[in-house]
Design goal:
CATH architecture of the largest domain: 3-Layer(aba) Sandwich
Helix content: 25-40%
Shape: elongated
Distance between the termini: 58 Å
Number of domains: 2
Strand order of the largest sheet: 3-2-1-4-5-10-11
Structural class: alpha/beta
Number of strands: 11
């Protein structure tokens, strides 16, 4: 290939810059021109991209967010707009595009593939809800950020004999909630996949109070049936041993310097994406499966990471006793 483009789409995730760096330098090593598309698919629609050099991606691995920007683009949903995007890419000699993002980003990559542009998707989302891969760029950093926040909240909860409800991100996936809850010894974890009845929460609170626990930590995913404020209100309206407070961690989990795992994962996936393009592959996903990198067909209906199983249920009981 003479030229490729790279873009980050959807919500930003720590480690995206490491992926952009790896894609750029891997392609430059093959004497190709690399174009950086600004603000995801919006940059294609509105003709905003610039050439990337080895120097321009220097010292970005440790930075959160995306140096190219990210985001969603409603205009790209229109077929005629996509055709104009393809014309724009071809005018610049672009034969392949690496898309870093979630399932919506992969859906966009599929549309470019249908119009004759080779595409490879690199999974980048803190939610870890991408079909086909058991791990996505940004997830580990988001879990670590949530873990550190919950550790601090546990201390103040113990000081005031309180229940602390902590809402973490994850859209409709409870992966962050489960991992952060287990690593902090939370008393309960509530996810869209594993909802909990109020009666069970009150029963566990009563048992924790009888054991002399000064705190009761509940980690809940944003897609759970009850939001953190609503759950707090229900708890405070009932007769239980703890007064409840809530904290919504929100976008703090998407920012900050990526972890060692996310930097390495993004770098490996970026290199694999360029290898896939040069091998003539298109409409594929760079996935983490069976403890290794695999390039597989981009399938929006493929299984997603399971945030909860019987083993984790037992682990939570051990960590909260």
């Amino acid at each position: 290939m003479q030229a490729i483009a790279v873009l980050a789409s959807g919500g930003d995730a720590p480690g995206m810059n490491a992926g952009i760096r790896a894609v750029t330098r891997s392609a430059l090593e093959r004497s190709a021109v690399v174009w950086g598309v600004e603000d995801g698919y919006d940059g294609l629609v509105n003709h905003r991209m610039h050439p990337l050099s080895s120097r321009s991606v220097s010292s970005i691995m440790q930075r959160g967010g995306s140096i190219l920007g990210a985001g969603r683009c409603e205009e790209f949903l229109d077929l005629e707009a996509r055709k104009l995007c393809v014309n724009y890419l071809r005018e610049h000699g672009v034969e392949g595009v690496v898309v870093i993002g979630g399932d919506g980003s992969m859906r966009g990559a599929k549309e470019l593939h249908k119009l004759g542009i080779a595409t490879v998707t690199v999974p980048g989302t803190i939610d870890n809800d991408m079909p086909g891969t058991s791990l996505t760029i940004g997830c580990d950093t988001a879990i670590n950020t949530a873990m550190e926040a919950i550790d601090r909240l546990k201390e103040t909860a113990s000081a005031h004999h309180r229940a602390m409800i902590v809402e973490v991100m994850g859209r409709n996936s409870g992966y962050i909630a489960v991992q952060a809850g287990i690593t902090t010894g939370a008393e309960m974890i509530i996810t869209p996949e594993h909802p909990v009845e109020l009666s069970e929460i009150f029963r566990e609170m009563e048992l924790a109070g009888q054991r002399g626990k000064r705190h009761f930590i509940i980690v809940t995913a944003e897609g759970a049936p009850l939001s953190a404020p609503a759950l707090t209100e229900r708890i405070n309206a009932a007769d239980n041993p703890y007064e409840a407070r809530f904290t919504v961690l929100g976008y703090t989990q998407r920012g900050g310097s990526p972890s060692r795992l996310d930097r390495i994962l993004a770098t490996r996936m970026g290199v694999a994406a360029v290898d896939a393009l040069w091998a003539g592959k298109s409409d594929v996903l760079v996935a983490w499966q069976r403890n290794g990198i695999e390039v597989i067909p981009a399938d929006l209906d493929a299984p997603r990471a399971n945030p909860w199983d019987d083993t984790l249920d037992k682990v939570q009981r051990i960590t909260t006793t």
